Amino acid sequence: MAKKKLTRLGRYKIRGELGRGAMGIVYEAEDPALDRIVALKTILLADDAEGRKEYHQRFFQEAKAAGKLTHPNIITVHDFGEEGDLAYTAMELLKGVELRARMLKGEISTVEAVDIARQVADGLGYAHEHGVVHRDIKPSNIMILPRGQVKIMDFGIARVRVSDHKTSTGVVLGTPRYMSPEQVAGLPVDHRSDIFSVGIVLYEMLTRASLFGGADTPQILHNVSSVEPVPPSRVNREVPPMLDFIIARALKKDPAGRYQDAYELAADLRTCLAELGGRERAPAKDDDDQNVTKTVKLEVDTDKTRFAPAARAIGSDTRLPLSRQFDSAAALERLAAPGWRDRALIGRSARPVGFIRRIRSDPGPRLLFAAVLAAAMIGAAIAFA
Amino acid sequence: MTTTNAAPRFASVVFLKIQDFARRSVSEQTRLRAQLEAVVAVTTAELPIASRIVLEAADGIAVAVLGDPAGALRIAERSLAANSAGLPLCVGINHGAVQMAGGRADDGMIGDGIAVAASIADFSSPSRLLISRSFRDAIADSGPGQEAGMLAAGTFNDAGLRTHELFSPDAREPARRRRRFLALAVAAAIALPAAGVAVRVSAEGHQKVLDGIAGKFRQASARVEQYLRGLLDSVPWQKRN
What we know:
- The structure holds two protein chains of two kinds.
- Chain A is α+β, with helices and mostly antiparallel strands.
- Chain A has helices at 49-67, 99-105, 110-129, 181-184, 191-207, 217-226, 232-235, 241-250, 262-276, 302-305, 329-336, 340-346, 355-361, 363-384, and strands at residues 8-9, 12-20, 25-31, 36-44, 77-83, 86-92, 97-98, 132-133, 142-144, 150-152, 159-160, 171-174, 296-299.
- The longest helix of chain A has 22 residues, at 363-384.
- Chain B has helices spanning 26-43, 69-80, 112-123, 133-142, 173-204, 206-233, and strands at residues 9-18, 52-57, 60-65, 89-100, 109-110, 129-132, 150-157, 163-169.
């Protein structure tokens, strides 16, 4: 990063450092032309030509992608430029708290979680409508402002749909824990990948558990591709069943089974909010940034991952949870420790019905048997008496 | 996957699947789910609480009924009536092995009984109840003759390429079966004595047989007459003034 203290960048006067991201430093700066305080996100361009080109391209891609979007739930980009070894973007300065920090404090109510996810979905709906896929939705890229407004940040790996496909070169960008199965598999990614990521964020807000967490990246990627999440209401009993359905749909492994539109997800979350009985706004919290989730670059073999499990329909699991609406404890006890009578009833499979049992218990054959027997005796008597 | 029960237990599993559940809006999913839970609450009320385990599936509910296949069939048939109330159900029943998954009750249940019932429900169409061969055998075992109301409905291969023989209940089939047995009984009652007569005629010639029958008829008539006279004589008649 910058070795000497930076005081000016382009026309911007640096006032102080706000934080350090994965690829650069974010400053608080003043735009003297408009007398406006902005956040100045910088990136140190690499020394080697190839790396510089890639960084340069990504940085300006983000700026262009975000610059096209004007929405209350998306951070506003004012300007971008390049000076010396630094490229920069001037954007709206947000005074809020990252969702990741809020989640670490573990105090997000169900209503607030749904409201946050709803705003993120609204913002993404707008971005998708304008051809921009974020591809890195995660709690650290979501800012909560003091009045509860949510802003999506960091379109650092966002891709305008019409531009080139980086994944075709075998490079996948994103945060493993929040990636979609198709992203993990190195398949082409569209707006439904963002919907999957919102589903993960919502799940984690509701349950305070890491959904696809694992010991290392390969395990996380495996979990994303193959683990079917437990409904959140089973982890947190305050979660209403409607959210189970919303999350189940957002987290479908097959993109075709997911919400096809972020606005559709937002509409369902709005309905859910209405059913939950109103909205709660989160109080502002200080940001105690901890570097828990980072955007990483994964090298993948696109040929091998083309038919990854996540890309195919996942078969239904035969393991079914008990319904919470019905008390099955007595029957489970009976199943676990059957009495002597139960052993005959539930301890064996069905026996075939033999001739004697059939004649004894089945009225039809019994009538026929009696008739044949009686008629045969009469016939014999006539014939031989 | 760890399991707690070594010995397999068998149950009749009724799988109630809401048609096209995943394609519906979430508010509709919530409404249909609540409706299905109400239907299950009503239909399982007749069973003792120790006889049914209610399980949640992604797109429906499964009820494992212990030791009462007829009860499972009643639940399925009564649940299907909910179709008329706007709950599009596909129902599959199977009888097979079930067991608790993991060490805690919260871990749910697994087993072939559940898996096959789920795949049958998946194969079934709305308002239709499909039954596996093993459930038909179980119902026959619990009450021979009850399986007669289930007619063959074809076969299908599940995702694991297992072939399942399916049956479908037909309410009119038991009556038809009763009539068939009655007709056979009447035929036997006529044919076997007639065969006896035929044997006699072929052995003795028809004139002798007819004479013999006429003789026996006269003897029988005389005996009846004698009996009736004796009966009349024994009555203490009184004269009227």
